[in-house]
Amino acid sequence: MPDQMPALLIDSASRHYAGTAAPAVDGVTLDVAAGEFLALLGPSGCGKSTLLRMVAGFERLDAGRIAVGGRTLSGPSTHVPPEERRIGLVFQSYALWPHMTVDGNVAYPLETARVPKADRERRVRAALETVGLTGYEARRPAELSGGQRQRVALARCLVMSPELVLLDEPLANLDVHLRAAMEEEFADFHAKTGATMVYVTHDQAEAMALATRIAVLDRGRLAQVAPPRTLYREPATPMVAGFVGQGAVVEGAVLTAAAEGRCRVRLFGAEAVVRCRSGQGEGPALFCLRPEDLEPDPQGPITATVVRAAYKGGFVLVEAEPAEAPGVRLTLRVGGDAHVAPGEALRLAIRDGWVVPEGDGAAG
Ligand SMILES: Nc1ncnc2c1ncn2[C@@H]1O[C@H](COP(=O)(O)OP(=O)(O)OP(=O)(O)O)[C@@H](O)[C@H]1O
Ligand SMILES: [Mg+2]
């Protein structure tokens, strides 16, 4: 069954640049299903682009293996050159030919591949239609907006019908409004083509909006791979808890061992019940508290001081410091009509939360 096979398989892949202290990519194992939209997320320098370049064939592996559609492209004794990989690439700088028209830019890879003229014209037309640029064929890149240029780059990648499309921060050069519009276009593009996509970003909102699964890289290692909701609700390491979504990662203690995925805990001198992995042990632990896990409550057991309050339209986003834990900042939302100001006292209740599992070595 061809579609049971992962479209992309990365097996214990490593890359250590000469003269650097630590590997840029360190034993990453990951598989991407056919038609999946996987986001590769992580802070600057964590190895996202290096991993993508390894898949594209621009970087050799020091160890491990990469296969696309069941065929090994990079391995101990194999290195298929980039131009023979049938992988589509869209990078941050769209690198269009400035002297060529939109038509010419999109047709270029087909000409290089010596595709006959009639077939070429048909495929260029279809690709431009997919990205919504029909009617722009005769324009040059300088006569297009940033978003339109990015779409030309997308059409140029699409025209080759790649098995796999790799995108490295394709929206990084665009302003906020255009980014939002292009996000929708990527989602459409993915739905229309059914292509397998790996999308690098350090913008978690972008990853959440687009991806079926998100892989978080932390200093060259894979910290977690999960659907957006799982990543948000059940971060596997303190790094993921702090990097994805708003909220706080705080110290506390698990009082009673897990039952049905919940445990009784002590946080800031008060007891609460939060979610945890089954088999969670007792004792000191780290907790992830999202804004919706905390509730202002005059009867609440936790006393805190408002440090910052920002009206967000409909609600006030409050940062508060618990009296029991100076230096810790909790984030919560307070109803839009409430008046909250820095320096004020606030009582809170903990409605939910997550016990961050002990690091598996992925986060220090
Ligand atoms: N050609 C190179 N030679 C040496 N070191 C490199 C090279 N390219 C990248 N690095 C280093 O490898 C690490 C990973 O870099 P990479 O470009 O993969 O990060 P990234 O996650 O894409 O970051 P960003 O979000 O800033 O694009 C960094 O520490 C970087 O300095
Ligand atoms: Mg990068």
From TrEMBL:
Pfam families: ABC_tran, TOBE_2. Keywords: ATP-binding, Nucleotide-binding, Transport. Transmembrane segments: none annotated. GO terms for molecular function: ATP binding. Residues 8-244 form the ABC transporter domain. SMART domains: AAA. InterPro entries: AAA+_ATPase, ABC_SmlMolc_Importer, ABC_transporter-like_ATP-bd, ABC_transporter-like_CS, Mo/tungstate-bd_C_term_dom, P-loop_NTPase, Transp-assoc_OB_typ2. This is Iron(III) transport system ATP-binding protein.
